Amino acid sequence: MYEPIRTKSVHRMADDAPDGYPHRSREEELDIQLAGHLAALLAVTDELGDTEGGELIARQVARLRGAPPARHAGLTGAAADTLHRKAHALAGRALVVAASRADTAAAILAAERMDAHTAALTAAAPAADHHPLVAAP
User: Fold this and answer.
1) Is the pLDDT of residue 47 over 70?
2) Backbone φ, ψ for residue 106 (5° rounding)
């Protein structure tokens, strides 16, 4: 009743994936994760008013995404010590991903940002027996 198809179709599923869904490589996934962590770090850095640090982070995000990141002044109104703790955590996440994808430039930047936020918290911390990255009770 129907004639069988004798030629290949001109239409293809995404990447000819057997399940029909497009898939990314591990490297692509890590690039996306790293760019996301750095973009979040950029937002907190911008809120802290650190323009030099923000520019360094923005260059790495642009390198990973192929386009400069969107920057805005979405201020949360959080205290500086809270923002430094958040930035330290985000830089730590970026460092882990950068290390796993062997991205030396991003790893160095993330480690430097962690150091900068630790230093800022240490300078603002009152007593000596208080760890700067642990919130006060």
Assistant:
1) yes
2) -70, -35
